[in-house]
Amino acid sequence: MAYAKTKDGTKLYYKDWGSGRPVILIHGWPLSADSWDDQAKAIAEAGMRAIAYDRRGFGRSDQPWTGYDYDTLTDDLAAVMEEVGATDDVALVGFSMGGGEVARYMSRHGGRGVTQAVLVSSVVPYLVKAPDNPDGVDQSVFDSMMMEMRQDRPAFLRSFLNQFFGRGLISHPVSEEMVDWAWACAIQAGLKPSEEAAHSFATTDFRPDMAHFRVPTLIIHGTSDKVVPIEPTARAAVREIAEARLIEYEGQPHGLWATEKMRFTADLLEFLTEGGARKMMFRDEGQSETTSDMADIPGTMTERMV
User: Fold this and answer.
1) Is-contact 259 173, C-beta < 8 A?
2) pTM (predicted TM-score)
């Protein structure tokens, strides 16, 4: 197995598929690089190079006691990029918690080598509720998460992943086997890393990082995301990133890379292969191809796919 070594000696597992332009895939909490397999395979088959790694504390990477703040996690991303030689024309793709590493890389490392960014169901720019972020998630939700993890982490993860994929008594957008797989992936993470990483994505304010996005940025988010609500995240981010476009997946939950796998993979590939230079075209099933309307904010574009 391939590993990159970070500044503090932590070993990070990564997979490197295909050749060509590098696309770095950063997974969400509490999963691993394997959650990107469908998209990584499609990216490699499209003539690009897909690199996905396990965040420290998760999957097959080391589980150190410290280093779960976003400055360290972003330095880890830079270490992976250096290890694989991804220094030019790089696309960074961050899902959920992974969107934070994308944002912090743009500020802390000056976006070095990056020409495109993608934020999927991302926590950026600020998730927790505050006087200046009234649409955020109440702190009590995260406090409850911590308590439940400490009481019975396997049971908590099962409940969390059902919400993650939008599974309920009636709605079954993914199979029970998919939830089983995600649970097995999530339980690989250590308890300390799981808690510390959750604290980081819940409380880190990325609003100061937004001005450092100077590349075309695609934002994809489900309107029914109960884990990372769309209002304080994607809809705020598209207003704050100069060259951003937002595609809203109507009625979709947090884990839309699984619930809308084909559509999501197609949107991602289209953005990557177009280089973000033109308006994205989209086609609703059974309708003709159209371009989206421009949003009220100069330099941004919002698209809603239903």
Assistant:
1) yes
2) 0.90
